[in-house]
Amino acid sequence: MKAITVTRLSKSYGETIAVDGIDFEVERGRTLGLLGGNGAGKTTTIAMLLGLLIPTSGQIRILGHDMARDRFAALARMNFSSPYVALPHRLTVRENLQVYGHLYNVRQVARRIAELAAELDLEALLDRAAGELSAGQKTRVALAKSLINRPEVLLLDEPTASLDPDTGDLVRGWLERYRDETGCTILLASHNMAEVERLCSDVLMLKKGCIVDRGTPDELLVRYGRDDLEQVFLDIARDRAHPQTQGAK
Amino acid sequence: MSGFSASARRIWGMMFRHLALFRRSWPRLVELMYWPVLQMCIWGFTASFLATRTGSPAALAGGALIGGVLLWEVSLRSQMGMSITFLEEIWSRNLGHVFVSPLRPGELVAALICMSFLRMMAGVIPAALLAWALYAFNMFALGPVLVLFFLNLMILGWSVALAVVSLILRHGAGAEALAWSVLFGITPFAAVFYPVSALPAVVRPIAFIVPASHVFEGMRAALLTGVIDWGELGWAFALNVVWLIAAAWLFRRQFQVARTRGALLSIGE
Asked: Looking at the DSSP assignment, which residues form a beta bridge with residue A16?
């Protein structure tokens, strides 16, 4: 069964086309990476998936819910994390998680917070104000917020940005474990190619609002004759695409 | 969990977020009381001074003035309470998380209204106590009708705040100055300090469509003659319904426009 189905999705601002008729599907339990340079349409696509932005045309279905008509039913079963959206700085970590526990109607919210704190190593931070934390700690708290409702679909924008390699690795490991244990579907936008190779079962390469290539990380590496996704990314960004990719859209 | 209790819990979640903020920040609490108490000091002493110099009629007018100042704070604090609670979300760059949660726009508005009520009470009650202690003005002597005066003035504050929130949704933080200033623009036509008859005839129609002018005409009638003017209260309620419907329509429309234009992604800028 499909967790996410996107059909001919477009978004224009006047003459500017931010997303240009993209189609993709994500099976339940899979992790899809959205890759592309700045202005490729990743953030716009994620905003439309979250219901923050109304598409110019096209359809989005998440967990069977049409986002144009029934977005709140879908939003209750999904969540989102981005280091670019903050949590209230003056509230403690515990209070922030309580707020979102209430907003997502989480049962036994105190117990859920304790579970997340143990798993993401946040116990010592629970009673500290969110604004006093380091960037890496904030990212872990944002991740805890995104998992508060045990989401079936998780949208992550640069989830390990500003984390040191050790903590980044722990978070990636935790995301993998959460996905494998719960069957959660993850959509990940990242510029960290090693992270994408490790976490993603499928990758969409976006450029100027269009999908210019797609496949598993291994398929893309073979198709472009490269050893890592960073080189594939550069090939696409600098129009050095391998002949085999022509017409992939 | 039923739909109603789920909705109530989401509203409580938003209120909890703001109440926790007050628990951690005493200057915020002080700020709630500061202006209403200051207003009460300035206008209360002015009214007392006039009463001692000119006798009984001025004393009665002074009572009406203090009552006007107190009740107008109900509208002002309700409007600012709601607008500033929304602005707190923008300042903390938290709106992105709020709008991708299952919280419905109507629930957000309900939470803002509840917070606005608490903030208003935190400001107006100390000012009312001060009026009683310093000037022997007992607002509660108006009787049960006071609740209707309060209700009308709160609804007016919420309507104006909803319009301000709509403009912030549309134009971003650039419109935030309106949160402090917009209701002062209505003050000349609200008949707070003087009756509508004191206004030039040409602007009286403007005063007529402001719900607060009917509340204050009613308040003066109750204070000066002891008679409750139900006609004025009826007009206040009817006009408030119109204002609230117009503000709700504007909010709904601007929320859709903001979602279409992508303003929710960059609302703090």
From this structure: A13
Q: What is the DSSP letter of B184?
A: G
Dihedral sign from CA coordinates of B9, B15, B21, B24: negative
Identify residues of A whose CB sits under 8 angstroms from chain B CBs. 13, 43-44, 47, 50-54, 72, 75-76, 79-80, 82, 84-92, 95, 98-105, 129, 145
- Asked if the A2-77+151-245 domain carries CATH number 3.10.20.90, the reply is no
Tokens of B19: 């109440």
**Contact check, Cβ <8 Å, A104/B256:** no
Across the interface, whether the CB atoms of B6 and A129 are under 8 A apart is answered no
B100 has a chain A CB within 8 A of its CB: yes
Instruction: Give domain limits for chain B.
Output: 3-265
pLDDT digits (tens, 9 = 90+) for B86-128: 999 888 888 889 999 999 999 999 999 999 999 999 999 999 9
Rounded distance between C-alpha atoms, residue A87 and residue A95, angstroms? 10
Buried b or exposed e, range B83-121, using 16+ CB within 10 angstroms: bbbbbbbbebbbbbbbbbbbbeeebbbbbbbbbbbbbbb
The backbone torsions φ and ψ at residue A180, rounded to the nearest 5 degrees and listed phi first, read: -70, -35
- What residue segments make up the domains of chain A, in order of their start? 2-77+151-245, 86-150
Count helices and strands (H / E) in chain B: 10, 0
Query: How far apart, in whole angstroms, are the C-alpha atoms of residue B240 and residue B227?
Result: 22
**Contact (Cβ atoms closer than 8 angstroms) between residue A189 and residue A158:** yes
ipTM here: 0.90
Answer whether B90 touches A (CB < 8 Å).
Answer: no
Strands (E), A1-81: 2-13, 16-27, 31-36, 57-62, 65-66, 78-81
Query: In terms of Cα–Cα distance, which of B159, B158, B156 is closest to B213?
Result: B156
What are the pLDDT digits (tens) for B146-204? 999 999 999 999 999 999 999 998 888 778 888 888 899 999 999 998 999 999 999 99
> pLDDT, tens digit, for every residue of A167-209?
888 888 989 999 999 999 999 998 888 899 999 999 999 999 9
